[in-house]
Amino acid sequence: MATDQSSLTWTTSDVLSDVRRAASLPVTSTDWTDVVLLREVTNVLWSFAGWALAQGGEGRLLSALDRPVTTALSGLSGQREFQIPPGAILGTLEDVTFVDQAGQTMSRLLRIDHGDASLTGAVTATGTPSTYTLVGDRIVLHPIPSTGGTLRITYPRRHAELVADTADNCATLSSVTSASATTSLLTVPVAIMSLQVGHTLDVIRASYPHAPIVESVEVTALAGGNLQITVDRPLSAFTGNVLSGARVVRAGRSPYVAMPLELRTCVTEKTAANVLRAIGDLQGSQASEQAATVELARAMQVLSPRAKRDKPKAINPFSHMRSRMTRGRF
Q1: Residues 86, 251: contact at Cβ < 8 Å?
Q2: Which residues have a Cβ under 8 Å from the Cβ of 271 and sit 6 or more positions away?
Q3: What pTM did the predictor assign?
Q4: Terminal CA-to-CA distance of the chain, rounded, Å?
Q5: Distance of alpha carbon 287 from alpha carbon 298, whole angstroms
Q6: What is the pLDDT of residues 296-305, one digit of tens each?
Q7: Could you tell me the pLDDT band of residue 307, with boundaries at 50, 70 and 90?
Q8: Helix H or strand E encompassing 185
């Protein structure tokens, strides 16, 4: 029987409570405010837990972003240039593929040096893209797509920056409706502060493991006091997902920790170690550091099949093979 895991959460409120308890920090601390602590936890996720998770399984941190060739963030008529996903670790890409307008043919594009772009034909040549170059923060296709389609960008995604679940950062999704063939209308009860056309957003599932429903969607229009947000993604991108309680957040931010719960104690102790070291409690810092190391080793045994020891071979002492071996025939 299937089990609903929606009761499991790992929110920024949980993180703050865990770290304050582990480091014996009072809620009233003026030095270690919620904002400062969440930044410290984010640093741990980026430099410690994220690395461990990447080692734990191939593809575990990979994410795919689909961009319609007619609605890129900017570029030559929205057909040739596409922005590298802001959440890509070190701006690196795993691969880039082009899906035709019918959605039936997928072609992996070959990356070439920018100086070799002229070898692919005239600058204004059109056709089915076969190569791409990286220029600054842009993916430039060669040749220019002659028809509609989708550019699928696969990349290692860094964990989102942890933020408080407030209107400064996010809002709860009320509904999603179709605005056009390529856009959707998001309705929220409370406006995200200072949101503007051109900003990018993520929509994150409220239930564990808090996976993104859509990532890095561009805001193309705002209405109703910013309570109605039009984004450059069709309604089909939201279909089939649990939208109840989903959060609409600025791209690259999240009120949730999107990591296996098995790493919760490890992240807590590692953050507490950093905090205690900063305030001069070296003994406490060392103890938390050791606890984090032990928890990490346990988690890695679960996360990484390659980290597990080979199981010993079971040999039947009464088998014919065993009896022949004991008689020295091998």
Answers
A1: yes
A2: 19, 22, 23, 37, 40, 41, 44
A3: 0.73
A4: 51
A5: 17
A6: 888 777 766 5
A7: very low
A8: strand 184-187
